[in-house]
Write a structure and sequence with these properties.
Length: 576
């Protein structure tokens, strides 16, 4: 029997490096160089805020942190809908947009934070620059997987639904509203939950950031916890972590659980699920007279007016194009724009090479050794995560009773950022042989294991019931059932989760390998520490070199090893 669970491989439709990849990578080099040149004009000294450890300040700090997360999420959602829609409906745009997105999601985000902060502070007030950089950092941690999810949903809309929309002559807006967005709703919601959970990590990192004598800290839960840990005030650390966990639980109950329950109605299935999910808050809202009147008097009329404005345009929508390598010839204007853009990118890349040439040759061996050390930590954290996430994910995904009790707990625990718990991890590991080396692996593990767990839960939940029944009828032993059904079915999901987890581990290296704690600086050999030290010294050529090397390494691993794993999953484990 040929076992498999079908999945979409649009993300790595072309795993080899192409001319578009080279252009995109050169563009990133040019952008980094431009940011670093602007950073030379940043103020030499920036005074940071006075972070109070008073418990009365926590409500305000919580409000600031949640506000930054909310702003970044809605920006990510808007970007995902527009970018994914454009890429799905334009073959010419797809040739550039998808390689660009693939490279961007491979870039370790935290390595860009110093460049973004310093470049923005060169022409914006310090506080505005820090706030803008924090929102940009959180945005880049949330947007890519949401965009991929929405794009892949659009290109996989069933043909019968496309034909039905053509028969009803739906306008562009009505097709998007009644077909494409509902079809993508469940995947977009789950990716939103993962993005929001991951965003807490980068929120904490952005609120405690310093570049030498420039203090870019922001009032928020991250700076509160970091200040409390630096002062050794474990009571304040405990209260801060408790506040953070409370906020996560409240958001889960008031936002994500109601949305996931509401999104169940968008499932495309022939048979109703055995047990529908429930949300006490959604039940209250559905019975509320005030909410009903608000919808009838305000929201419904506005939605109708909005629909009418868009319906007045084109009334016939052609079927969405199928993914195809063929594309219409570019217009002369588009070719001119591309030529100007290519010249600008080439010139920026040339200037970046001149900056890299100023680095002493003795630095490069240190840089490659640091990269190898971080690679070993990333690999170790990924293997440790696989050991426990596979059995637990299968247990949760295969057992409804267990899922109903453990899945909410897992979602809450996954949302607690690793940086909030890092003081506890440091206190534990610094007393052991290996010190920060072990602590760095621990932080990478805490920040990446959830990507694997959620994907494995999804994979176990997607195993068809008829295959489960078949293994029961055949009375297969446990090990044989894992070999012939569970592991083959999980393979595509494990690969997807491993890519996200390894990317998160590379990101976490920048805050895991260079830590200021208890008035001391702890450094582990690694590319993350190299980036952090270059930032602290203001050594911009080495910052550019280490960041570009890290970007190229992650992209190279994705396009070689992980792309091959995707092809294995597609060829050997497809349900047919």
């Amino acid at each position: 029997m040929r076992q498999a669970i079908s999945f979409n491989t649009a993300k790595f439709a072309n795993p080899s490096l192409t001319a578009a990849d080279l252009f995109v990578f050169t563009g990133i080099v040019a952008i980094l160089y431009t940011g670093i040149r602007l950073a030379f004009d940043a103020p030499e000294v920036i005074a940071g805020p006075d972070i109070s450890l008073s418990f009365t300040a926590l409500p305000w700090y919580t409000l600031f942190s949640v506000g930054r997360m909310t702003a970044a999420y809605f920006l990510s959602l808007l970007f995902s809908l527009s970018y994914g829609y454009w890429a799905a409906h334009s073959r010419n745009a797809r040739l550039f947009l998808m390689p660009l997105l693939d490279v961007l999601q491979s870039v370790p985000i935290l390595s860009f934070l110093p460049v973004v902060l310093l470049s923005l502070s060169s022409f914006l007030p310090d506080k505005i620059a820090a706030e803008a950089a924090a929102i940009v950092l959180i945005f880049t941690s949330q947007a890519w997987n949401m965009t991929f999810c929405f794009y892949q949903s659009l290109i996989t809309v069933p043909m019968e639904l496309r034909e039905a929309s053509a028969v009803f002559r739906l306008s562009t807006w009505l097709r998007f509203k009644t077909l494409e967005l509902p079809f993508a709703a469940i995947g977009l919601l789950w990716n939103s939950m993962m993005s929001w959970a991951g965003g807490w990590f980068f929120l904490m990192a952005s609120e405690i950031f310093r570049v030498g004598s420039r203090d870019f800290r922001l009032p928020g839960l991250g700076s509160y916890l970091q200040t409390a840990a630096s002062h050794g005030d474990m009571t304040a650390v405990a209260v801060g972590v408790t506040t953070l966990v409370g906020v996560i639980v409240v958001l889960d109950q008031l936002v994500w659980q109601p949305l996931s329950t509401w999104a169940e109605k968008f499932k495309v299935e022939m048979v109703e699920s055995e047990a529908a999910s429930e949300s006490w808050f959604l039940s209250i809202l559905s019975r509320s007279w005030l909410v009903e009147r608000l919808y009838a008097r305000l929201l419904a009329p506005f939605a109708e007016w909005f629909d009418q404005r868009f319906v007045l345009g084109k009334t016939e929508w052609p079927p969405a194009p199928e993914p195809s390598p063929d594309a219409r010839p570019l217009s002369w204007f588009a070719r001119l724009v591309l030529l100007i853009l290519a010249l600008g990118v080439s010139y920026g890349g040339y200037l970046a090479v001149l900056m890299l040439a100023t680095i002493p040759l003795t630095v490069w061996p240190e840089l490659f050794f640091a990269l190898f050390a971080t690679f070993l930590r990333v690999t170790a954290s990924l293997l440790i995560a696989l050991v426990w996430t596979v059995p637990l994910g299968v247990a949760i995904g295969s057992n409804r009773w267990l899922a109903a009790r453990l899945q909410p707990i897992v979602q809450v625990v996954a949302s607690v950022p690793a940086t909030a718990l890092f003081p506890v991890v440091l206190l534990t590991f610094l007393r052991l042989p290996g010190g920060l080396d072990l602590a760095a692996v621990g932080l990478m593990l805490m920040g990446t294991q959830w990507y694997l767990l959620f994907n494995i839960i999804a994979g176990a939940s997607a195993i068809p019931q008829d295959l489960r029944d078949t293994t029961d009828l055949m009375r297969l032993p446990v090990l044989e059932r894992w070999r012939t059904l569970i592991l083959p079915a999980l393979f595509p999901y494990v690969i997807t989760g491993s890519i996200a987890a390894s990317g998160g581990a590379w990101n976490a290296s920048i805050v895991a390998e260079y830590v200021e704690f208890g008035g001391k600086t702890h450094v582990a050999v690694g590319i993350g520490a190299f980036i952090a030290q270059a930032t602290s010294r203001g050594d911009f050529p080495q910052l550019l070199a280490s960041t570009l090397l890290l970007v190229f390494t992650v992209v190279f691993i994705n396009r070689t090893f992980w792309a091959r794993m995707y092809r294995v999953a597609e060829e050997r484990y497809r349900m047919e």
